[in-house]
Amino acid sequence: MSNPLDTDAGSELFSSYEAELKLVQADLNQKLDQISEQSGEPRKSAIRLAERSLEEANELLDQMRIEKQNIPSATRSRINPRFRNFETDIDAAKRKLKSLSDDRKALFGNRYSDNPTTDDQLEQRQQLLSGTDRLDRSSHRLRDSQRLANETEDIGRGTLADLQLQRETIQHTRQTMLESEGYVDRSVKTLRGMARRYYSLDTNIWKAKRDLHIVRMATNRIITVAIITVLVILIIAVVYSKFK
What's the rounded Cα separation, in Å, for the pair 122 and 6? Predict the structure, then answer.
């Protein structure tokens, strides 16, 4: 049997499963002892109860196996021997239950025979055939469930592959958008620079036109003054020649 229950830090849940398993194990052993003392229908009923207890024990073992992985290594090294003892005890109980279930004479009593000659024996044979048929149907359902699980797994893998491809596409699109934003920013900066240069050039042209207009006005004024001066001189010369 397993060692006494410890209370190592970090193993509280494991210890809880262990305590529950001990109770289930004690109940299973008691039911196995009762099977040996019975036959016929009571024996079959006791076997079914023992099978349920064995299933419960296996479920607790599975829970303990999962929880054991979450326990620190130092504590796990002390827990592993206890866990292996539980596995050994449950395996032994499973073998004992199988041996008791295979004892057909005790299971069916004096009615069991390979060559039935009475109504009870015929009924027992029909029950065996019916049980075999149910077992075949259960096996068929199990194979269908396995096939469905495999198909579902294939679909899941395909879906994951599609999602991965979509993720890569989204990342590529996002990268392209970021690069496009960079191009747009550079284009906006270039257009702003061109606008500033155009505005500066337009201002310079306006200033040049203004200066040219001023020069032209000044030239016109100089020419006008020169013409007037020449005319005045000519008039003075004509008047002077007449009175000389």
Answer: 55
Alpha-carbon gap, residue 109 to 111, rounded angstroms? 5
8 — phi, psi (to 5°)? -65, 145
| CB 32 within 8 Å of CB 97 | yes
| Residue 237 to residue 137: CA distance in whole angstroms | 146
> What is each CA distance from 11 to 15, 21, 23, 70, 82, in whole angstroms?
6, 15, 19, 9, 13
DSSP H/E element including 1: none
| Contact assessment for residue 57 and residue 24, using Cβ atoms and an 8 Å cutoff | yes
pLDDT tens per residue across span 101-130: 876 555 555 444 445 455 556 666 666 777
pTM of the model: 0.41
Q: What is the pLDDT of residues 186-220, one digit of tens each?
A: 888 888 888 788 777 778 788 878 888 888 888 88
Calpha distance 170→111 (Å, rounded): 73
Do the Cβ atoms of 71 and 14 come closer than 8 Å?
A: yes
